[in-house]
Amino acid sequence: MADDTAAVTSFFDEPGVDKTVIPVGDGVPFGVKRVTNEQLGIGGAYGTWGQSYDNAAMPSFVEKQLGEPIPDKERLNLAELGFLSRHHVAPLSKEENIAVEVEVGARLLREAAGACGWQPRDVDGVLIGMSAPITQDYLDRITEAAGINPGALKVAVHKACDGSVSSLHLALNPSLPENRSLRHNIAETLRGKKVLVGGIEGLSRFLSRTRDMNALQLFGNAAGVIGVIPGMTMKFLAGQTCEAFDEEGVLQVEMNYPHSAQKAQTGTNIEVTETGDHSIRIAGLMHQPTDGSSIVMAGPMGMVKLFVRTGVQVVRDAYRAYQEYLAQLGQNGKSLAVAIVHHANYKINKLKEKHLQNEGIVLPMPWVVSEFGNVSAASNMIAFLRELPRLKPGDHILIDGFGAGTYYDVLAVEVGG
Question: pTM of this prediction?
Answer without folding.
Answer: 0.97
